[in-house]
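Fold this sequence, please.
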Amino acid sequence: MTAPDTETGVDAEALRARAFASLTTARARTTLLTSCVEEPDLTGQHSPLMSPLVWDLAHIGNQEEQWLLRSVGGLEAMHPEMDSLYDAFEHPRAERPKLPLLPPDEARRYVAEVRGRALDLLESTAFHGTRLTEAGFAFGMIAQHEQQHDETMLITHQLRKGPQALTAPDPDPAPPFAGPAEVLVPGGPFTMGTSTEPWALDNERPAHRREVAPFHIDTTPVTNAAYQAFITDGGYETERWWAPEGWEHIRRHAITAPLFWRREGGQWLRRHFGATEVVPPDEPVVHVSWYEADAYARWAGRRLPTEAEWEKAARHDPARDRSTRYPWGDADPGPEHANLGQRHLRPAPAGSYPAGESPLGVRQLIGDVWEWTASDFLPYPGFAVFPYKEYSEVFFGPEHKVLRGGSFAVDQVACRGTFRNWDYPVRRQIFSGFRTARSADA
C-alpha cells in the first residue's frame, strides 16, 4: 500500500481504489438491472410510484456528469438540456413516461461516456482542497446515488408484471432461532450520528450525544409467521390498533395484508420478482407500511423503536462506551455479517448472521429489510446542508418516517450504522420491515 501524502495524511491511492471499486460495483449492478428485460419493459412505467427504468439509467449518468465532471472536474456540460429532463424535483415520477427521454441505447451510450470521463478524472483528482474532493467524497456520493437508484430499479422489477427476469441464490438456510426474543439495551448517553465517516451524507452529521432511557428491543426483525398471527387475530379489522390516518388509509384502499400477498387454498402466497411462492414463515416480513408496522406493534403490546433507540442498539458498545460503524464493529461488511448488495433477492431467515450481531446480541440490524422507526425525519443538532438541500433538507418534517439498517437490496457503500432512510408512512413497495421495542419499565 502506498504511504499517505506527507502534507495531508491522505492515502490517495487507497481512496482511488475504494472509489473505483464502488463506482464499478454500482455500474455492474445497473447494467444487470437494465439488460435483463427487453426495451418495452425499460421504457414502460410499471407503477405510478416509480420511474421508467430508462429514466433512472440516464438520471444516474446526469448526476454523475453534474457532480463529477462539472463540479469536481470543471468541464462543460455535455448535454445541458438533460439537467431539466432528469431533474427528480421538476418532474414527478407519474409524469416521466411522457417526457422525451433518451431511448435505451442512447441512454447507455451517454452513461458510458460520462463514466469513462469520470474514471479519467478519478486518476488525476487530489483528495483535498475542497469539501467535495476531501477523502473522495464526491466519488463516494455518486457511488451511493447510483446504488440507491439500483435499489429503486429493483423495486420496479418487483412491481413489474410478467415472467421472472432476475435470479440469485437464496440465503443459506438457518436453524430456527432459539435465542431470547428481546434484549435489554441499558439506558444512558451514546454518540449518535458521525463526524468522521468520510462518505457519510449530510443528514448523518454531526455526531452528537443522545440520552436514551433503558429499553428492550426484538433480537430479530418481525417474521412473516408472527405477522400472519396478527392478520389471523383480526389485526386489519380492529380499529384500536391503528393510528387514525392509518385506519382511514387501509379502509380506503381495502388493504388486508402486506403488499404482494394473497390468500389461496388456505395458505398465504406472494408474488416475488415474477414468480409466485408460499410466504416463507421464518423470513422477516417485507413490503409493509409504517402504519402496518405500528399497528402490529400495538397489537403485540409493544411499540416501534425510536430512531435513537435503533441506533443505540445497532452501534453502542457498552463495554467500551463507544459507537462503532456497524453492530459487529468498525470493519466493512462481509458476507458473514449481513445480507446486502442484491447478493440474494430476499431476506435471510430470522436469526441469521450471528457474526453480524451487536455486542448486546441483536441480529440483522444491517441488511435484510429496512426497519421502520417511530421517529419523524428531522435534522440533527448542528445540521448543515452539503452539498445540496434537495438531498435531505427538503424532506425534513413529520410527513416522513425514518427507516434504518438497509435491506438485501442495499449495497454496503450506501449502508452503515448511521445511514438514514425516510419515506411516507403509507409506502409499501419499498423493502421495508420492522422490529418492535418496549420501555424497560413497561
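The longest strand covers residues 370-377. The CA atoms of residues 224 and 280 lie 7 Å apart.
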